[in-house]
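ok so for the tutorial part 2 we go from a plain amino acid sequence to predicted structure tokens. step 1 is just haveing the sequence, like this:
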Amino acid sequence: MLVAVLVAAVALGVLQLALAAHVRSTLTACASEGARVAAVARQGDDAGVARAAACAQASLGMGAQVAIAHEDVGGRDAVRVTLTGEAPAVLWASGTVEASGRALSEGSHAP
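step 2 — the prediction. this is what the tokens look like for a chain of 111 residues:
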């Protein structure tokens, strides 16, 4: 009986880690997609934020906080989108998961 409880606890722990990894991977994909949309010259930051948030909602069924920043990558302009959301809880209290993606801005040229 004691072994069964231990095995169940370990299985739930592995499930918790797998869920957290899935959420982080999905948020990274959504952040990258939002960054690509924001990097397109015709669409801009608002479209990238909206796309990242919609992707997180559609993929995970959860809202995520979206932050966008412009940065320099090797002398070229880039857009970084960061998503922050809640990790699902199985055994212990849920925490926050943060993931980001970036894309080079359209129309920016290397010096």
